[in-house]
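tool=predict chain=A
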Amino acid sequence: MGLKNRIKAAPPVSIWQWRTLLVCGCLMLLACGGGGSKSNLTSPSSAAVSNSSLVSSSNATSSSSTSSAQMSSAASSIRLGGRVTYDFVPHNNDHIGLNYSATTVKAVRGVVVELLDSKNLVLATTITDNVGDYSFSVESNRLVKVRVKAQLSRTQTPTWNFKVTDNTNSNSLYVMDGSLAVASDATGVRNLHAASSWTGTSYSSTRVAAPFAILDSVLLGAEKIVAAGNSRNFPPLELRWSVNNKAADGEPTFGEIGTSFYDGSAIYILGDQNSDTDEYDRHVILHEWGHYIENELSRSDNIGGDHAYDDKLDLRVAMSEGFSNAFSAMMLDDPEYRDASGTQQADGFSNDVSQKNHLVRGWYSESSIQSILYNFYLSENGKVAKNFSDIFKVFSSEIYSENAAMISIYTFTDALRSVLPDQIVNFDSLLLEQNIEPTNAFGEGESNSGGYSGSLPVYKILATNNSPVTVCSTNRFGAYNKLSVSQFLRLDISSPGIYRITVSEAGSNSGDSDPDIYLHRNGNLIDFAEGTVIDQEDLTTDTLSVGTYVLEILDARVADINSSDDITACFDVRASVSN
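tool=predict ok
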C-alpha cells in the first residue's frame, strides 16, 4: 500500500459472464470464459477486464484494401505483425502532478497478443518483445484482427501471469483491439497504440493507455527481481483498475475502494480523474506490488490500516510500509516517491525515501525503515551499489520468512547477520542513524521507547509458571495499527502440552476493558480468544510443540478506530500448563 494507502479485505464479487462488441478505437471489456451474448457498452468508462479488452486503431482498415485482398490467392500466407505502444505521462519536474505536455510513447512489452478471426476465435497467440513488436504467420485473404491483452505472461521459469482487470465490471480483463481487415501485403503491418485520451483539460474517452502503463511498472519490478536471483514462480495476480475507482470507502464493485491497496489476493488502483488517479504513479503501483512480493515470495505480518509519515506504528506495519516505499524506489532507481492527484491531476505529493533526518525515528517508523533499506541499497561499502540482490537474499531467506519473531526491522537485521555477515557493520550504522539498536530478532536491549515506557521491552518474556507479566495497551499514538496498541510477549515452550493463557485487568483506571489474545507461531495465527467478558480473557490452547511463540495482547477498545476516548488499559498476563 502506498504512503496514503492501506491493506483491507475486498468483499466477494458476483461473477457473471458476458462479452462486449469490440469496436476499433475503443477500450472494451471481455469477461473470463468468453461465453454469453454480445452487447454494446453504454459508456466507454465501463471498459474493463477479466479477460478484458482495450481497443485501439490499426493502420489496416480501409475498405479498398479489403476488396483487393479478397482477390488474392487463399493458398498463400503472409507475415502479419507490428508494434504495440502506449502513452506514458510523467510527473512534473517538481515531482508534483502529472505533466501531460511531456507525454512520451513507450513500448508495450511482454503482453499477450492474439490473432482473431471474424467470429473472435483465437487463431494464434504470441508475446510482444522488448520493443513492443509481435508477428504472426496468417493465411492471406483471411479476415482477421489483432487483440492486445492487458496481461503480462511468461511461461519459462520463473513464470508470471499479471492481469489488469475492472473491479466495477465483474473483474473483466482489459484488451485493445485493432480493426477487422483481410490479411494481405497491404494490411500486414498493424501497429496498435494505446492513447492516454488527454485533451488538454480532461480525458475525452476511454483511457486505453492506463492498463498498459500499470503493467509496464509491474514488468520493471518482475525483471529486477529475476535479475536479483529469484527462481520461484510468481503467483497469478490481478491489478484491478477502473476510471470509477475513487477515494470513497464502500463497495469495490462500485469503485468505492478508498485508496489504492493490496488485499492479499489482488491490487486495487484508483482511477478517478480530477480526484486521484494512480495509473501513472509508478511508485504507488510498485509499492502495492511490493506488498504482493512480500506476501508471496517472503513473509509479511502487516495488519494494514492508515499510516502517515510521522506516525509511530506497530512494528509489523512500520516494516511492511517502509519496505514497500523503499522497494518502489529501488525498482525504479528513483528515491522520489510521487503520487499525483487533484484537479487535472496537477496536485499530489512527493517524498524522498533516501532522506535520513526524520521527525520520528525508530523501529516503529516507516520513514526510518525506508531510509535504512534504500540507503543500504545505495551503499558501496563492501558491496555493489544499487544491487537489489543483496536485499533480496535477506528478504527471501528462510531465517527471515520462518523467524519466530514477528516481521520487523529486527527480523530483517537478524537475517542479514547470517546471509550477509560482511555487511553487519554497514547495516548497523544505518540502524543507529535512525535511533534503532543493533540487536536480535526480538529487539532485546532496545532503548528507544518512542516516548512511552510501556512500549519496552519490545517483547516481554512470559514464563509458563503462572507468574504475571504486566502489559499496557494504549491508543495514545492512535488506534488499531499504532505503537503499543498491541503488546507482544515471547513464550518459549520447552515441553509439549496444552497451555492456559489468562489475561486480567491490572488496576482500575481504564474502565471496562476488553482484552483479546492472539497466539502466533512463525507469523501464523494459530489460536486466539476474543470473548466479551469485561476485564478478562482466557485461552486454552491445542497441544503446543516445543518452540518459540509470540503472544499478542490488546484491548479491543484501543484497537477501535471509531473510538474517541483516550485509553490505556493494563493487564496481567499468565501462562501455565493446563490440567
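The CA atoms of residues 227 and 419 lie 18 Å apart. The radius of gyration is 27 Å.
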